[in-house]
Design brief:
Layout: H1 2-5, H2 9-20, H3 25-38, H4 44-51, H5 57-78, H6 87-107, H7 111-128, H8 131-145, H9 151-182, H10 184-190, H11 196-213, H12 216-232, H13 236-252, H14 259-275, H15 279-292, H16 298-313, H17 317-328, H18 339-353, H19 357-364, H20 376-392, H21 395-411, H22 418-432, H23 442-452, H24 470-477
Helix pairs in contact: 2-5, 3-5, 6-7, 6-8, 7-8, 8-9, 9-10, 9-11, 9-12, 11-12, 12-13, 13-14, 14-15, 15-16, 16-17, 16-18, 17-18, 18-19, 18-20, 19-20, 20-21, 20-22, 21-22, 22-23, 23-24
Length: about 475
């Protein structure tokens, strides 16, 4: 029985005590059955043998069902909202318990106490936008008050129930639409270019419902959809504006306030600021995001990566190396195959940018996983290694690496972008000129300027794998700091 596995020590102790107080034979059997299950015996045949019970299959099923009811009763009694970290989840659990308690009190004749519990809990439900629970409580309250409450009180209740029903209907519609956004398969279809109009219409509908009903839970999904859409379409200034409003919502509204939500929205805003090259603002938001994600979670590891990129792009190398240190100490960095190799590459970038070429070369060559991939991480790994070889003055090894990279790009043409091709040409030109940066050819200087100006096809992505910008690195080594 899987329920036994989720029970805490105190809950098991309470159940054992409760079963020990029963005096009938079935109570004794339930107690023995629980002890067997707690020891890990799950095979029905073995359990029946150890119970030494000649009961039929249906009687044994009834025994297990009664034990399950006992366990559920204990779980409900012992569970506390204090154990639930997320405030809105804890409040929802409390609301559900209070509804049951009020119902029992009213049925047993303690109407005054039951009504007090309901009225207080209705306020909590409104605060956290638990409209389903609030409707249920108001219905129970109206049912109890119908015979002796004033007409004005009943009229107020009817009006409130009617209004909440409409709000709840809107919320249910939004939650239905949220499935389209949250489910990976359905979300992929919605985000397809052919469905762009449908996506825009969804955002408009969510915005209208949010403005009409002022529900934070509706606003959450409106901002989620809008920021995702505009991030995909690279409207980063709009993402920042929407994201800051989104951030206020998840910080101030109890209905959607949680550490994960605050972390996620800060990450969205931070990435948009990073794309806009507002590095200081990006670092600020991404630092908050990293602190709010669970310390041992994958989300924090991803957040640390974005933070390290922002810090290196903003030339905060000391901060970047501290961030890299946190990531390297993450307890789950080796759980997925690509995590550690990427972080070793990021660390090598940080070391190279702080002029520690020897350490960068050693770090980069600790793991060859990225070289086996067919993505931009492979290309940038190769380019970083070639920049290191230039610093080390190793012409022979650089010549070999250049040739291998050209052949790789011939096989994987999708990775052969104008910017990557420009990097290869510039490095090749430097090799021919024996690493004399002042002797770069005119054609290659023009290529360099296209990269520096980020002309069409030559753009640098601050959120991509090119952490060390080859174009600025070469520019800074040209005599008189001039590319032209």
């Amino acid at each position: 029985m899987s329920l036994v596995k989720v029970m805490r020590v105190g809950e098991k102790r309470m159940l054992t005590h409760m079963l020990s107080r029963t005096t009938n034979a079935e109570g004794d059997l339930r107690s023995r059955l629980f002890k067997l299950l707690d020891k890990g015996h799950t095979d029905p045949k073995i359990v029946k043998e150890k119970l030494k019970s000649a009961r039929s299959a249906s009687s044994f099923a009834h025994l297990k069902r009664r034990l399950k009811e006992d366990i559920l009763s204990v779980l409900l009694v012992k569970e506390s909202s204090k154990r639930i970290a997320q405030a809105n989840r804890a409040a929802q659990f409390d609301c559900i318990k209070k509804i049951a308690q009020a119902h029992v009190m009213i049925l047993r004749g303690a109407q005054t106490e039951g009504v007090k519990v309901l009225r207080k809990t209705i306020q909590t439900a409104e605060r956290f936008e638990f409209l389903g629970e609030k409707l249920q409580m108001n219905h129970l309250l109206r049912e109890h008050l119908v015979s002796f409450a004033s007409a004005s009180e009943l009229h107020r209740l009817n009006k409130e129930i009617s209004m909440d029903f409409k709000r709840y209907e809107a919320l249910l519609h939004v939650e239905e639409q949220s499935v389209l956004l949250a489910n990976p398969e359905m979300g992929k279809g919605l985000r397809a270019k052919s469905n762009e109009k449908k996506y825009i219409q969804l955002i408009d509908d969510l915005e209208k419902l949010y403005k009409k009903h002022k529900l934070a839970r509706v606003g959450f999904w409106y901002y989620m959809a809008a920021t995702e859409f505009h991030t995909a379409h690279k409207n980063f200034e709009l993402v920042v504006d929407l994201g800051l409003s989104f951030l206020k919502l998840v910080q101030r509204s109890p209905a959607v306030k949680s550490k994960n939500n605050v972390a996620g929205v800060n990450q969205t805003v931070g990435l948009a600021q990073l794309e806009l090259r507002n590095f200081s603002e990006a670092i600020g938001h991404l630092s908050v995001s990293e602190k709010y994600f669970p310390s041992a979670g994958f989300n924090r590891l991803q957040g640390l990566q974005f933070l390290a990129l922002a810090e290196m792009a903003g030339q905060d190398y000391s901060g970047a190396m501290q961030t890299i240190g946190k990531a390297m100490a993450h307890p789950r960095i080796e759980v997925r195959e690509h995590f550690l190799p990427r972080w070793l590459y990021i660390k090598a970038c940080g070391e190279f940018l702080t002029s520690d070429t020897d350490s960068a070369f050693k770090t980069l060559n600790q793991n060859g996983y990225l070289m086996k991939q067919q993505d931009e991480w492979n290309i940038q790994y190769r380019l970083l290694e070639m920049l290191q070889l230039i610093e080390m003055g190793d012409e022979e090894w650089l010549d070999f690496k250049l040739d291998a990279t050209r052949k790789f790009l011939t096989r994987h043409k999708k990775l052969d972008t104008p910017r990557v091709r420009a990097a290869i040409d510039l490095i090749g030109n430097l090799l021919r000129k024996e690493f004399d940066f002042g002797e770069i050819s005119e054609n290659n200087r023009q290529l360099l300027n296209l990269c520096l100006d980020e002309s069409d096809g030559y753009e640098w992505s601050p959120t991509g794998a090119e952490i060390v910008r080859f174009d600025t690195w070469i520019r800074d080594k040209i005599p008189n700091q001039e590319a032209e």
